[in-house]
Amino acid sequence: MSRRGRTVWLVHGLIVLCAALILGAMAALTRGVVNTERNRASMEMHANEQEQVRLALWRMDAAAANWIADEAQRQVPDPVAKPGDKREVKLRFDAREDGLLLADDPDKVPEFCTAVGLNSKSQAFSAMCSQIPEIPSSWSTPIPPVQADPFQQSEGVSQNQQAVIPQSRASNAYQTFANSKEIADRGKAVKNAVESGKTQFEAWNANSGNNIGFTNVGDWNLLRSSLPRPARFGDELLLLRHLQWKLPSGITSRSIQGAWIDETAMKGLLLGEISDLLPGSILVNSTEADADQGNALASFPWKLKLAQAVEIVPPLPDTIRYPLIAGWCAAVVAILAAWLLVIGLLRLSERRASFVSAVTHELRTPLTTFQLYSDMLASGAVKEEKRGEYFRTLRREAERLSHLVENVLAFSRIERRCGISAPTTRIAGEMVAPMVERFRGRLQEAGMDLSIDPEDKSWETPVKADPAAVEHVLFNLIDNAAKYAARGIVRLDAENNGRGLKIRVSDEGPGIPPKERGRIFHAFHKSAAAAAESRPGVGLGLALSRRLARSGGGNLEFVAGEKGGSSFVLTLPSCGLGVPLL
């Protein structure tokens, strides 16, 4: 591989490496942005879900608090009364210290004793006293104070009560703190509602003369409040509270009043409150640890379990998607633009190298001839009868050099788009007639002849073009025929197809190989055969001729000859059609 080839491959390799780095950086940036946005959307969905859970828990605890408060203000069950109107209550009872068990539906007492594990109803009081829980912790846990400065003690809050709030909201400690505060708030609301029911019960007690008391007596440390609270006995859920009786004899008696709850019906009642928020959710048994997770009820020992939701990946918002698309498009366009620029620079460098090489070669031959012949003529070494031939050779080389310079200058003007045109309306034959002798003279130098039919009516077509540009194009075609055909006759024909005038220059040479036809109009291009035979020229004639033709609204095309040879067609706009040639 040549040095130039290695340089080209090195440049393209660097471009590919830079493109890979840019696209890799864009891919990493896009992945980061997409992941960040998806995490943000996921966190937002999780936050919305948590907000719905929080609202659902508040609704259920509010409904449960009202339900428990209603139970708290009920009177002592009448042993001959019928069951109440709540389908969530299987049985209401009053288990007294003396072994008496009163119920609003005596027929269900055996079923109740079996369900809660009592051998007889006389054991109800002692069994419940040994197993009844304290007031739920969520009802009695103080609400942690919220402070901006965790090291500054709030007024009225002791050092032991002081809560140190985690500074990071994303930390587990902060979430635990928030969940504790949330369930404490709900527990306080439940307790307040239940205490209001207790107040109404006390009013009934005061008016009824039953002398039911709520003060602690003796060492019965479980009698700390008359608030009904849930208690689990085996698989059954009860709502229990302590009562204290003062009998007419002056003896104080105690009892445990409660309700046997139908868990399925109660869960259905509470879940009905959140059917619009979290459809499909269920309530399951909870533990103390569930309170830290923020999904436990403050009223009953249950926690909320959400229905399994299908995770939906949200689409990227337009504010992110469109800038990413624009960034990718800009990166790809920048890479392509840089690549095209480099390719253009490489081609320009190649063209300049080709131009310098070709022009140097073309100038060397006539300059050598000028120097050699002028020295011989000046020294008198040439005989008198040979001087005319030497002068003709010098003139021919001068014309060749002049034509080369003329092509280079014309191509430069076309490249810089500063060509000056002088369009005129002329009859095609009258415009071409003065050029014929020059064309014929060039062909005669190569031992060829020019064939033209001046009687052809097509030459009478009026065209609007620059005669100098037309002569330049046609002379380049004739010159190419003289250099490459090197035998036979060159025909110059005209054809008016109604849309313009087509001037055809045809030769009887070897023609142009099919693989070279797509590049013959490239600047500084010469066929492999012409380069191998060192044919004169720099490869500018056809490129310049096509640009001259197209710049004036016409065209120059190659057409393969039917019997071999080459044929070039110059199309000129008829008068009133197209624009001037230059």
Give structural notes.
The structure is a single chain. This protein is α+β, with helices and mostly antiparallel strands. The chain has three domains: 3-41 and 317-343; 45-149 and 162-305, no CATH class; 420-582, Histidine kinase-like ATPase, C-terminal domain (Heat Shock Protein 90, 2-Layer Sandwich), CATH 3.30.565. Helices cover 49% and strands 15% of the residues. The chain contains twelve helices and 15 strands. It has helices at residues 3-72, 109-116, 124-131, 137-140, 172-208, 263-272, 318-379, 384-415, 428-445, 467-484, 528-532, 541-551, and strands at residues 89-96, 101-103, 212-213, 229-233, 236-246, 252-261, 282-285, 302-305, 424-427, 449-452, 462-465, 489-496, 500-506, 555-560, 566-573. The strands form four sheets. Strands 1, 2, 3, 4, 5 and 6 form a six-stranded antiparallel sheet that branches. The protein has a five-stranded mixed sheet with strand order 10-12-13-15-14, covered by helices on one side. Strands 7-8 form a two-stranded antiparallel sheet. The longest helix has 70 residues, at 3-72. The chain starts with a helix and ends in a 9-residue tail after the last strand. The model is unreliable at 146-165, 211-224, 528-534 and 577-582 (pLDDT under 50).
Any key phrases for this structure?
five-stranded mixed beta sheet; six-stranded antiparallel beta sheet; 12 helices; disordered C terminus; Heat Shock Protein 90; 582 residues; 49% helix; alpha+beta
How are the SSEs placed, and which strands pair?
Elements: H1 3-72, E1 89-96, E2 101-103, H2 109-116, H3 124-131, H4 137-140, H5 172-208, E3 212-213, E4 229-233, E5 236-246, E6 252-261, H6 263-272, E7 282-285, E8 302-305, H7 318-379, H8 384-415, E9 424-427, H9 428-445, E10 449-452, E11 462-465, H10 467-484, E12 489-496, E13 500-506, H11 528-532, H12 541-551, E14 555-560, E15 566-573
Parallel strand pairs: 10-12
Antiparallel strand pairs: 1-2, 1-6, 3-5, 4-5, 5-6, 7-8, 9-11, 12-13, 13-15, 14-15
Helix pairs in contact: 1-5, 1-7, 7-8, 8-12, 9-10, 10-12
